[in-house]
Write a structure and sequence with these properties.
Helix content is 82%, strand content 0%. By secondary structure, the chain is mainly α. The protein has one domain. Helix 1 packs antiparallel against helix 2, helix 1 crosses helix 3 and helix 2 crosses helix 3. It is flat and about 45 Å long.
Length: 93
């Protein structure tokens, strides 16, 4: 169950990153200057997801969960931070 939750969070994160990439290509902010950074980001996300799935297939579920948590935990913490920022009603400026 935890594996599926972490995998779902990681896949949603990959979709969001893909959205930012597509918007960046459309508006020109993704250029030859920062292409290597985007390739690194995509490689890291793909490696985490593929590694987690591969470990789960060979019944190393604890290691699969830890691998997927590398991306899922910061994502959840960031979503909580943005939620507090948006819904707190205080001015952070």
């Amino acid at each position: 169950m935890l594996f599926k939750i972490l995998l779902g969070i990681d896949l949603l994160t990959a979709i969001v990153i893909g959205g930012f990439f597509i918007v960046g290509v459309a508006d020109g902010s993704v250029s030859s200057f920062n292409t290597q950074l985007w390739i690194g980001i995509w490689f890291a996300v793909a490696a985490i997801i593929a590694g987690g799935v591969a470990l789960h297939r060979v019944t190393k579920t604890i290691f699969a969960n830890l691998t997927l948590a590398l991306l899922a935990v910061p994502t959840v913490l960031y979503v909580i931070f943005i939620g507090v920022f948006v819904f707190s009603g205080t001015s952070w400026i």
